[in-house]
Amino acid sequence: ELLARARLTRFIVKREDPTAEVWPLRTARTEALRPAMLEHAVRSAAEYLARNQTEAGRFVYQIDAVRGIDLPGYGWPRHAGTTLLLAEVAARTHDPKLTAAALRGGQLVQREFSVECGPYRCIGDSNRVDAGSAALTLLAYLELARGVSSAGFDADIRALARFLRSLQRPDGEFMHVYDRKRRRPIDVQLPFYTGEVALALARAYRLTHDPADLRAASAGLARLVRRSLFQNRYQYGTEHWTCQVLEELWEFAPDAAALDFCLDYQAFNRQYQVGAHSEFGDYEGGFAPNPFSPPRITPTGSRTEGAVATLSELV
Question: Rounded to two decimals, what is the model's pTM?
Answer without folding.
Answer: 0.86
